[in-house]
Sequence to fold (418 residues):
Amino acid sequence: MTTYILIAMILGIAAGGLIHDQVAAPATQKMLAGYISIGSTVFLRLIKMIIAPLVFSTLVVGIGHMSDAGAVGRVGGKAMLWFVSASLVSLTLGLILVNLFEPGVGIHKVLSGVSSGVDAHAMTLDGFVKHVFPDSAIRPMVDNEILQIVVFSIFFGIACASMGARAKLVLEAIEGLSHIILRVTGYVMKLAPLAVFCAMTATIATNGLGILVNYAKFMGEFYFGLVCLWLLLILVGFVILGPSVRRLVMLVREPFLLAFSTASSEAAYPKMLEQLAKFPIARNISSFVLPLGYSFNLDGTMMYCTFASVFIAQAYDIPLTLGTQIAMLLTLMLTSKGVAGVPRASLVVIAATLSQFSLPEEGLLLILGIDTFLDMGRSATNVIGNSLATAVVAKWEGLLVADDDTTEMIEEMEVEPA
Fold:
């Protein structure tokens, strides 16, 4: 599947470039891209179809099999410790690199009063609370509000664990549901190469290969930063997990490529759950930590927020003192934790930050054109960050069984997810 996805990505870039060159009218390009993107739209809709029942069933079963509510709190606390630390590292690295490379210096943009079209007020405390705490058990499932599903599932799972034998039948039924959803996931994932081809073709057909050249400096420096972040996270993973971190990286190649090529972390979630089970990580840990990570551990998005915000200030020749940049970093540290469920989350967070620090919100127009290409890297980074977070929490809980003997055994035979 990894090979098929890579081939589909390359073919999509070639096909998109050919359409852009051969079809001169932008309206026609957009129309063709719309038709072609139907393939990726269908795939992403199918993925969203299974996310809610998959998160609910695996999380409830995982918590239901934990010994007590204290275990849930302990695992959640360790996960949040990693999430906050990783976010701080990501934001700081982005801030350091954007000051080192200065990608916006020399652009000399002049304020024109044009609206960016992004609602800077979408990030509010009230909005964050509504994204966290559901007012219905059903609506979060319908709207795919992952964080709300997690909150409801935690309460439901703890209740099942506290009732013991009386909840056994319910837990067995939900566990059966989780296996069915995983089988459905396998069917949906067979469409991944087609979705990758359609997504890449549509994007390049509309924007052309030239957009990659025009923004090569900004994109190149940002992706260099992402690579540095990957290496840093893997290095920390090596310190905690030892040599087995190499096996973990190999296992998440497929979800990594899937997230990169579709620019969607959600698309990789089911496959990540399956691959982490092969590491092997206890399902009750992965089914608990991963959904939390999708809300609180978006490492790629964190780094992009500081990188893009300072880039816009540089482009408009607005100097930012060290104190202002540190205040911006701490502000982003808090506001970015509410991005779950917000459309175009990173752009909304950046818009809110620009507004708060009196920077021109229209500066978002500088990066809107290439945001899809940047989102590809951000989504792939989130896969690495969340897979490492899950493995580290499992290690801290003593539930990671990836010693040398186990690793050799797993490499010799196919392991079905628990």
Observations:
- DSSP finds 21 helices and no strands in the chain.
- Confidence is low (pLDDT under 50) at residues 402-418.
